[in-house]
Amino acid sequence: MGHVLQRFHQVLDRLSSQHHKPVTLKIQGEDVLVDKAIADKLYDPLLHLVRNAFDHGIETPEIRQNQGKANKGQIQLSANQRGRYLVIKIRDNGQGLKLEAIRQKAIENQLVTIPEAQRLTPDQISDFIFEPDLSTADQVNELSGRGVGLDAVRAQLKALRGTVTVASRPGQGTCFTLKIPADLTISKLLLCQAGEKLYALMTDTIEQILIPKSDQLNTRNNKKVLSLQIDEKAQLIPVIPLSEALTYNVSLPAPHWHQGKESSDTRPIILMRYKKRLVGLEIDQLLGEQELAIRSLGDMSTIPTYIYGCSTLPDGRLSLVVDGAVLVLNILKGVSSPEDKIASRQPQLPHLSKIPAISKQSILIMDDSITVRNTLTETLQKAGYLVLQAKDGVEGLLKLHQTDVAAILCDLEMPGMNGFEFLKVRQQTPELVSIPTIMLTSRTGVKHQQLAQELGATSYLTKPYLAPQLLATLAKVLLQHPKPEPLEMLKSIHG
After folding, report:
1. Pick from 424, 432, 372, 441: which is nearest to 399 by CA?
2. Are 378 and 490 contained in the same domain?
3. How far apart, in whole angstroms, are the C-alpha atoms of residue 460 and residue 469?
4. Domain limit, last residue, from 326, 349, 372
């Protein structure tokens, strides 16, 4: 990321000189490695956010001095790899968002009514800045008030299947967070052997690696626990063999490498953290750290959520890459379930076999992206559904006229007739309102979800989605809603 981030020194030097507003730039994460195509596409949205921070965030030296701040403002750019996402933050120490001005502008643009605006939370108000034509600038200049707003940034992030969110504190500053799923990343991985398999663990949630003493390991309720002193407090940490924690049912050929003789009493334990809780993963052998490229396995619906991708080792061997944070979360869910006596060893994961079989029901996909439609179609067909596709609401209504559909997967942002407009038509049509409709969108804002619910959406999922989660939601929705009667009256709706 360094070659992208370093370009903003020159950008801010020029802006500071032109507008007589001194600002320093602090950069972190230059060594984060991402696909060059992704890095290049990030420059434009980052440029927009840096200029926005300079113009709207950082005050003039006179105002900062009156507020007891340093005359020179500061903008921070940071990049890091968190699990399966590249996370970039653009933070300034300026005045923060003008929430009341944003609220009034949203009312003027008829995005909300006055009574609705009074009930909005600060986060809901902040989310309006990503709407088109919502500039709060007092006058037009080369930086502000030209009608090109942060909606362009959100659109650019959507093209990368990413999201952008904002957090602000009055008088202290604003932080924009970009979160981009990375199909190809390069990260430091911990290679280890469990049973006859080789695995690579992402290191961001690894707390410690230790070989326990015999008196540190005990058994309680037939479950292994590790006694450890942390911050001068004794803690009992559940320990699960990694080969048992990985519960997918796939037969892989045993790798051929020399296996060192390990004592069963001295197996290494990797301590993984999720929030304030720890889990110990017991492995057979540590093989060291390596910086490797991680490739996506695609939208294969049978892959557990904790499998991030795969890597090819320098000697040509393949290894699955495990997202430790997701794996530990699943383990903790199992450990906390008293009904399941083996939950501490085998976390409950959303396997396809647990999703009720619903034979040959038709699902309508409405999305303007042909890539998204084809990916969803492949996932649904593997699960036994018939699939219809439509690029927007208008084409979707035509498909509904022609075919009996059990459920609808609908995007929000589409040309012709968007998702909200389709929901309005559905809500006003008796023949349509009984068809369960799941919104599948990159819009993560609370107000979008609330509006979709008010318009009768059955469920709301955000992209990027996990195939098991999507299939489980669809199965649940279909069980809760009886199959609708054939839609013979839709011809009059379509006109």
Report:
1. 432
2. yes
3. 12
4. 349
What is the distance between the alpha carbons of residues 103 and 122, in angstroms, rounded to a whole number? 10
pLDDT value of residue 182: 67
Please state, in angstroms and as integers, the Cα–Cα distance from residue 400 to each residue in 240, 329, 349, 487, following that order: 50, 40, 34, 7
Quickly state the pLDDT bin for 259 (edges 50, 70, 90): very low
Identify the helix (H) or strand (E) that includes residue 197. Answer: strand 197-202
3-state helix, strand, coil split of the chain in percent (to 5) is 35, 30, 35
Q: Tell me the pTM.
A: 0.45
Query: pLDDT tens-digit profile of 329-341?
Result: 888 876 543 333 3
Query: In the block, which residue shows the tokens 């669809």?
Result: 474
Q: Look at the chain and report how many structural domains it folds into.
A: 3
What's the mean pLDDT when you consider all of the chain? 80
Q: Domain range for residue 309?
A: 184-246+264-349
Beta strands at 33-34 and 184-194: parallel, antiparallel or unpaired? antiparallel
How buried is 119 (Cβ within 10 angstroms: 0-12 exposed, 13-18 middle, 19+ buried)?
Answer: exposed
Whether residues 340 and 194 fall in one domain: yes
Measured CA to CA, the distance from residue 439 to residue 474 in angstroms comes to 11
Confidence of residue 195 (pLDDT cuts 50, 70, 90): confident
Q: CB count, 10 Å around CB of 17?
A: 10
Three-state secondary structure call for residue 466: coil
Q: In whole angstroms, what is the distance from residue 264 CA to residue 257 CA?
A: 20
- Which has the higher per-residue pLDDT, 84 or 66? 66
- From 144, 165, 181, the end of a domain falls on 181
* Burial per residue of 273-304, b for 16 or more beta-carbon CB atoms within 10 angstroms, e otherwise: bbeebbbbbbbbbbbeeeebebebeebebebb
